[in-house]
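Worked problem 6 (solution included).
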Amino acid sequence: MAESTLSSWALLVWDELSARGLDADRIFREAGLDPSSLRNTVARYSIQQMQTLWQWAHANTGDDFGVCAGKRWSPMTFHALGLAWLASASLGEALYRMTRYGKFVNDGVCYELSSEGLQYRFSIRAVDTLGERSPPSVDASIVALLKMIRMLLGENYSPIEVQCPHPPNAASLLLEQQVRCPITFGGDAVEVLFHRPDIEKVLLTGNTELSLANEQIVVQHLSDLAQSDLTTQVELEITKQMPSGQLKEDNIARALNLSRRSMQRHLADEGTSFAQLLETKRRRLAETYLRNGALAISEIAYLLGYSEQANFTRAFKRWFGESPTQFRQMPDNAEKR
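Solution. The predicted structure is:
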């Protein structure tokens, strides 16, 4: 299936073209994009057609177009993923959601969050070659990402450094004014470097119920989008069946009309396994629930599909090196309650 992006991302381009007095309808059609898709919040455009659109903008409007388009980002640009982002309990949790579900917005790029001692690095890298993307599309991605981050950490926040893969151009000063931190030009990815405390700080605006509800909307859309992506379908079934107490590999396979052995084989082809997906989901939800503080530990164990609280406690100690009670009593986690 051709790589694609949400049409709502293209809406930023439409609005900026219109603001400059240009015929957005004609420009979209010449790029092969149906403007009527902009009214469908989960419609998609091909990456190739979007790059044609960005290249036209670059050639006909000036280097500042991407920065100006990126400033138009709002949470609804990313549909339910934007709302899940706003309700995240920390910037780290929000960025993790992008690494897991960013392909809902754009399946032509991959997202990665990595820990580097006292710092974290978030990368956006094209599946093919980021250097082939037009500079305005890269600039829009950087500006939109910084706007997303500041919605969580405050308008005055600035990261340590931003890496921009294209060479400096006439819009570089404007881009620097937006990110308000040093920019390194070159490389093969958009990267943002953060101080660890900024990533891990518990946010008072976090709402576990809302973030998880919107996350499941994203998962459902991903499942509909890529029926061949068994990993997404298994993740969705794990979430559905987790509180039932019958979270077994056979039950998941049966729900997907597969034999256990067939599911195992297909997941292996996608580089994962049922056990890995279940472990990752439980670990992340456990951390989210404990940081939120609204649920008792016994309730969390039930929601994660553990028949006994002791089994959950043993798993949590394996993940984090301490018990759920000790984790919840840490000052950074306790201040939310």
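Discussion: The chain has two domains: 4-200, 227-334.
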